[in-house]
Amino acid sequence: MSFLDWNDEAILNHPTLDKEHKKMVDDTNKLYSYVVSKKNKKANELFFEIIENLQLHFETEDRLMKESKIPLYISHKLEHERFLSKISSLQKSIDAGKEILSVEHLKLVKTWFYNHMKFKDRALAEFLIKHNIQ
Ligand SMILES: [Fe+2]
Ligand SMILES: [Fe+2]
């Protein structure tokens, strides 16, 4: 079993979203293995890369939401912004040597990920599939 599972909770059946989410799941699992084995340097580098990809992923969803004119766009966008700001401040604090990336941090990411899938991205995927937007 992986730290994050690529399962029915995560798979949305929308190719663009699934591709980006799958990369996030794989990278986070790799990050988890670095954290557990205390490979701090590798962990910090990968964490930085994950945040960059997360930013790009949110841009992808933002574009798809605008293109599809999905209702409740703002609440979805706000959830992205709040998470990105939280995770960026964690990254800064790690960078400044004030904190070390831990399994507890990753558990928060995990909770956020599955919640966000359930309450935001799944509805987005269904809306996009219905309107044939890739
Ligand atoms: Fe997403
Ligand atoms: Fe999202």
Task: Please sum up the structure shown.
This protein has helices at 15-36, 40-68, 73-95, 103-130.
What does this structure look like?
The termini are far apart. Helix 1 runs antiparallel to helix 4. The protein has a single domain, classed as Up-down Bundle (Four Helix Bundle (Hemerythrin (Met), subunit A)), CATH 1.20.120. It is an all-alpha fold and 134 residues long. It binds fe (ii) ion (2 copies).
CATH topology: Four Helix Bundle (Hemerythrin (Met), subunit A)
Gross morphology: globular
What CATH architecture do you see? Up-down Bundle
Reading the helices and strands in chain order gives: HHHH
- How many DSSP E strands? 0
Mean pLDDT: 97
Gyration radius, in Å:
15 Å
Class from secondary-structure proportions: mainly alpha
Annotated CATH homologous superfamily? Hemerythrin-like
Any low-confidence stretches, pLDDT <50, length ≥5? none
What is the CA-CA span between the terminal residues? 31 Å
What is the count of DSSP helices, taking H or I runs of 4+ residues?
A: 4
- The CATH C-level class name: Mainly Alpha
How many individual domains? 1
Q: Largest sheet, if any? A: none
Please describe the topology of this protein:
Blueprint: H1 15-36, H2 40-68, H3 73-95, H4 103-130
The chain binds fe (ii) ion (2 copies).
